[in-house]
Give the backbone structure.
Amino acid sequence: MFSPVMLGQVFVNGVSLSAIYILVALGFTLLFGIMRVVNFAHGSFAMLGGYALYFMYGEWHLPYLLAAPLAAMTVAVVALVFERAVFRLFYQKMFQSMIALLGLDMAITFTALLLWNPYERSVPTPLGGVLQWGGLIVPEDKLVITGVAAVALAAFWIFTRYTRHGLALRAASQDLEMAEAQGVNTTALYRLAFLIAIFMAALAGGFYAQTYSLSPMMGERPLLMAFIVVILGGMGSIPGVALGGLLLGFSESALSTYYGAAVSTFASFGVVFLLLIFRPWGILGTPEHD
Amino acid sequence: MGADVKFKGLLAVACVTASVLAAPAARADEDLKIGVIAALSGGGTAWGLGLQRGTQIALDEVNAAGGLKIDGKTYKFSLIAYDDQYNAAQAKTAVDRLVQQDGVKFIMGPVGSPGALSSLAVTQPAKVLQFVDGYAPGILKNDFNAAYIFRVDNSNLEFSAPVVSWVKQTMPEVRKIGMIVPNDATGQAAVPTLIGAYKVQGYDVWVDYYERGSKEFTPILLRMMAQNVDLFDLNSAAPGDAGLMVKQVRQIGFKGKVLQAGGAGVDEIMTIAGPHANGFIKYDVVNEAEPQSKPLVDTYAKKYSGPMNGMVPVYYNATQILLEAMRRANSIDTTKVRDEVEKLEGWNTALYGPLRWGGKAAYGNNHQILLPFYMKQVDGKTVSVKATLQPNN
């Protein structure tokens, strides 16, 4: 059980799991960090991303490198309707947003159920094989997700640190009134943040559907994972997402392999439970002050 | 003249009113609602839809034939379905609504032990006749002695030993079995029967548990592979979960046999696992190639899109049993219908030939159907039947 190959495989599985968790959680934490919105409809946007990729790549056979970003962008652009009609009413209203967006999540999910039936589908993948190095086995689709997650994480970091819009977003998240007083157009800024967040959710949903399966109800799991990751790492913190995703992915890989799924689940939720008691703002988050 | 016009007007209104009131009486069809409790979302969706659609097709047939004449009345049937999401709490809510609010006296479903067990406490005291599919022995062996419940599909007690004997016979190289078992009533109460059947035949069995709805099985599959198992049995995993297990176990390089002794439906698993499903062996309750299955297969293809899950024939068959029992009882009283269902032993069913009830030794009553079943294998994009087996009684 503790052979080098086995340990290596645990590591590989940990990396691929972490990548999925990071990808799913990035958009979730962005919306909270900037607009203080707990997006309980995150999973349904991920689901829509899955269906968009299913149709664009699986049915209409667009080239994959075009279909994947186009599917996510289509969902993000269409979702601007929800930004105007729903999300905008709940910016900076954390608790109200939870309930409202839970309702939106149900509305989107059950509309999808009526449109596309509840059957689980498979989204074809351009890379369905496995790579072998010695005894190590890496599924190609998970390797792609790892690469995309790494790029997305780096892009987020660079965007929020070094670009004009990114700096404006950070300024607005730290002190909204002061940022507006300095001439920051928060309405446009929020729309941009929303677009990026939903793009990330839909992109993650596409990969998630490809790796696992696609159905109108598939959003529950990504939402749960995103929630755990951002609670671990700290709500609104992008480095926190990376840390939370890595912690969850590696602990699940190691604990499930060596001690079974029940111990892994117990440990994951146990850590979240303890964290909420002793450090409710997460490992890299910052506490809220009145 | 004016009075005459007024009188004729009143007469016309009276005639129209009378004809409107008389119209329903002339049709005289009674609507009898059949309840359905099924997983219409989540990992058990394929089973739930199969249940609903199999029931619907049988009801459509009897409605198209003019309905069922019972005690001087003609009954047409309609269906009320609620989603139980393959869990006990939702099934309890669904059965409460059907029995208390909708006044339903006949229920098809749920599929799955958690829902079936939780619904018993409502249906049995209310004398609601229920046709379930779940593997836990407690569904039939309980304080109610299954008074108003029939299991309309084989359970582990009926198919485990024949499947394991077939494995022993056809796969002599297999020594050790690996199982990842759902951590619910099915996994805890029913799967041990399958594990016991393997052990009786001298196999070493390694078992771990998972939560239904899980998507990532790779770590636990890796754990299983480290035990050097020769055959991975998916036991009672729902098609959604089973498809992912098949895909992921092949992705991490498992070279042994993958088999599912339980559940129903191969197509959904093939859809999710894709090419990784090649060589996968599966228990199933319908052989689409047999001539008696053809009318149902054709009707299904005309009416619905998507694959025909094994629950379609199971519940098509169950609904036909219910309708025949009503016809013979000449009543919709659930006690009289229940008694006729029991007496239907030997009645020639459209899909499975003579009806067989059993289970007295195991459950204390004969409310367990005994269906012939099939071991199928995926070869590329096709599925072939490798063996037809008979259940234990």
In short: The interface with chain A takes residues 40-43, 45-46, 49, 180, 183, 208-211, 213-216, 218-220, 222-223, 226, 239-240, 243-244, 251-253, 268, 271-272, 274-275, 305-306 of chain B (CB under 8 Å). The first helix of chain B runs from residue 2 to 27. The mean pLDDT of chain B is 90.
